[in-house]
Design a protein that fits this description.
There is one protein chain. By secondary structure, this protein is an all-alpha fold. It contains five helices and no strands. The chain has a single domain (17-82), classed as SP0561-like, CATH 1.10.3910.10. 54% of the residues lie in helices and 0% in strands. The longest helix has 14 residues, at 69-82. The chain is globular, with a radius of gyration of 15 Å. 19% of the residues are buried.
């Protein structure tokens, strides 16, 4: 019974519903969710469309541009939800 409660509370968390995570590769994000391209550009991350897009994660890209990773991932997911 206790285990069921723990699992249920985990599913109530909004984290599991996010489509985009900080560990995703930039190119994967823009390919799956093209509506995020404007978010990358508005935040000064044109690297989402360059050679770095094939090996750099969302977290690495955000950190290299001094962007708060958590807030950036939230913005990306917000752009996907608008679709």
């Amino acid at each position: 019974m206790q285990q069921t409660r723990v699992l249920s509370s985990a599913y109530k968390s909004s984290d599991w519903m996010n489509k985009i995570t900080k560990d995703m590769i930039l190119g994967e994000v823009t390919r799956k969710y093209p509506e995020t391209i404007n978010v990358f550009l508005e935040r000064g991350l044109p690297c989402a469309m360059c050679h770095a897009a094939f090996h750099e994660t969302v977290e690495e890209g955000a950190k290299s541009h001094n962007i708060n990773v958590k807030k950036f991932v939230e913005e990306l997911n917000k752009a996907v939800k608008k679709k």
